[in-house]
Amino acid sequence: MVEGLWFLINFFFLFEVTASVNFYHHNYEDLVRALYNVQNECPYITRIYSIGRSTQGRHLYVLEFSDNPGIHEPLEPEFKYVGNMHGNEVLGRELLIQLSEFLCEEYRLRNDRITRLIHSTRIHILPSMNPDGYEVAAEQGPDANGFLTGRNNINEVDLNRNFPDLNTQMYYSEKINGPNHHMPLPDNWKSQVEAETLATIQWMTSYNFVLSANLHGGAVVANYPYDKARTRGARYASYSATPDDTLFKKLARTYSYAHGWMHQGWTCGDYFEDGITNGAHWYSLSKGMQDFNYLYTNCFEITLELSCNKFPRQGDLEREWYGNRDALISYIEEVHQGIKGMVLDENNNGIPNAAISVNGINHDITSGKMGDYFRLLLPGTYTVSASAPGRKSQTVKVTVGPAEPLQVNFQLQPDKALSIQEEKTPVKNLNSKAHLKKIIPRATREEPQR
Ligand SMILES: [Zn+2]
């Protein structure tokens, strides 16, 4: 009996020690080792891949969780987390390492919630998008760290100001009832972006991501698109809503309310009601990653500001993990809402790139390579259409509930008459050079968080 008790005391002592030992700042080698350790512990549900290299040649490693790693299963949504885009904002990087270890451990312990999540979702975790900047910031350490040291990549470029600006095109397109999704990239975009940005954009287009968050520091708030103000010259209080504004607010609130204190609103000397903010309402930001996700892909991304101190002390990491753990899980679960289904042809083959339009929401999404689509929606009744070139479009009325996503399949029959007509009538091309020349980007003053 006494021996048993002694064993228990020892067990808890050891467990506590082991647990707290994990809360330390991981440099590049530590980060790689931590990811491979998780892969070793959970080989059947994980995969490590690199999306490319940083300017100094460090790999941008992603850890994937899935019941079938490396494979897209139709109707199983793809989710991503991106950390440490600003090299000196390091909490996201540490939280994503913790999250990886947690998902693996809990899966092995047969935790119901985690098992369900991994069986129904393909989760991609990029703990550091800016490993070069991190090393610069880490050299200074938590206490001596200047506000901006290591923020940029090694070429001194702010990666969250380095994506092609598609907002300007979109705001023009809105006025002329032009395209409302997948805006085209400028011709020479590749030569205008950094290695890290290029790798991330190619990653974004290789997977049909549905939901994402991008982890930062310097404030505590869940920030949702648009980041770039619609109104010329406006800087403060210029709320720039997307057509999915109510959904984005709900996504941001899911994080802030599952977080230990974010929802309380008062943090780092700022106040944000419910712990959320529209990006442009806070301050306008051009060429950010969050808006780019929404305007160029099917992915809905929010930006999470997670700590006042961009480089928290090691001793604070454990508290931060417990403050964020449930929020990180709950936010992934948000990928399972709205409607999803297959867009098929007359022979039941999937139709890729079919547009899914929802009446009243001026933002279409498209089906993936296998013809499956995912349309995040709040509960309600919607009129939804699927369309593809050369086919008759199909429209249905659906009622979305609060729990599981509703499966709505479409079958689009060929429309010979329609395809002949389309060939004859030149489609107005919004993306022509003539149109784009009319749009003059404006300079924006920027604040150093997002
Ligand atoms: Zn940041």
TrEMBL record:
Residues 24-335 form the Peptidase M14 domain. It catalyses: Release of C-terminal arginine or lysine residues from polypeptides. Its cofactor is Zn(2+). GO terms for molecular function: metallocarboxypeptidase activity; zinc ion binding. Its EC number is 3.4.17.10. It comes from the Eukaryota. GO terms for cellular component: extracellular space; transport vesicle membrane. Residues 1-19 form the signal peptide. InterPro entries: CarboxyPept-like_regulatory, CARBOXYPEPT_ZN_1, CARBOXYPEPT_ZN_2, Peptidase_M14, Peptidase_M14_domain. Pfam families: CarboxypepD_reg, Peptidase_M14. Keywords: Carboxypeptidase, Cytoplasmic vesicle, Glycoprotein, Hydrolase, Membrane, Metal-binding, Metalloprotease, Protease, Secreted, Signal, Zinc. It is found in: Cytoplasmic vesicle, Secretory vesicle membrane; Secreted. Its main location: membrane. The active site is at E305. GO terms for biological process: cell communication; intracellular protein localization; peptide metabolic process; protein processing; signaling. It is a peripheral membrane protein. The keyword Glycoprotein applies. Belongs to the peptidase M14 family. This is Carboxypeptidase E. It comes from Geotrypetes seraphini.
